[in-house]
Amino acid sequence: MNPNLLPALVVVIGGLCVGSFLNTCIYRVPRGLSVLGPRSKCPHCGETLTAGQLIPLWSYLIQRGRCAHCRAPIPPGYPLVELAAALLATALFRLEGFSVAFFQTFGLASVFLAIGVVDWRHRIIPDGFVAAGLVIAFLGLPWSGRVSAWEAGLGFLAGGLGFLAVQAIYRWVRGREGMGDGDIKLSAMMGAALGLSGWLQASVEGSLGGVVVGVLLIIRGRANMQTAIPFGAFLAGAAIILLLIPDYLR
Ligand SMILES: [Zn+2]
């Protein structure tokens, strides 16, 4: 047997389980519910899921995307988040091996994934997600080897203050709110996670992505200048790309 097969399998299964926990957080945190308990229910019929029905991805596949009890369709977002977490775990494990840096970068990528999905769906960025990202970013600092304490501190300040300034300028020019407080907190956390230069790249790419998608939606008549674009989702996506390609554009 290939000696790399077992660790790879553990990483994939671990990634799927993290994805399943992220689904719980993505569903419950914006609704003000606890992420620790009780066990998940079908949102359609309220039936508590059995242990077998909580197996990520597999249960979705054997139930053919439907609740085993009421046959209501399970939104494809659930298996997609599990799959995305498993892919992120695999890619980051290939980059970092079994190390603190792996756990830190995968933890951060998971937080960004959850923030992206919640902001996309609800246009909010829960404080709890940002706090989790800050803890992971600063706790892993001494071992990560990617970002120095100095860069993380500067990134945190630049991320917070830079976006506060953008928010104030936008309010002054347009006379209304353009950027939520959640975006500012996310930006500060991103600065701590990616360092100053990483924060700059991610915020430029995220902003460009948001503008391009916004313009496309306007052209296709599905949005106008007043439509709220989930800016945080684009920032989170750009942050994940930077975690996956650490020397991107450097
Ligand atoms: Zn059901």
Tell me the number of helical segments per DSSP (H or I, 4 or more residues long). Answer: 9
Shape: globular
Note the main sheet.
none
**How does the helix and strand content classify structurally?**
mainly alpha
Alpha carbon gap, first and last residue: 39 Å
Count of structural domains: 2
Cα gyration radius (Å): 19 Å
How much strand?
A: under 5%
Mean pLDDT: 91
Low-confidence region ranges: none
Query: N-to-C SSE series?
Result: HHHHHHHHH
Fraction of residues in helix: 55-70%
- Give the cofactors and ligands: zinc ion
Q: Care to count the β-strands?
A: 0
Oligomer: single chain
Write the layout of secondary structure elements.
Layout: H1 5-28, H2 58-62, H3 77-96, H4 100-122, H5 127-139, H6 141-144, H7 149-174, H8 181-219, H9 231-244
Helix pairs in contact: 1-3, 1-4, 3-4, 4-5, 4-9, 5-8, 7-8, 8-9
Describe the structure.
It is globular, with a radius of gyration of 19 Å. By secondary structure, it is mainly α. Helix 1 (5-28) packs parallel to helix 4, helix 3 packs antiparallel against helix 4 and helix 5 (127-139) packs across helix 8. The protein has helices at residues 5-28, 58-62, 77-96, 100-122, 127-139, 141-144, 149-174, 181-219, 231-244. It has two domains: 1-98, no CATH class; 100-250, no CATH class. 67% of the residues lie in helices and 0% in strands. The structure holds zinc ion. Zinc ion binds next to loops.
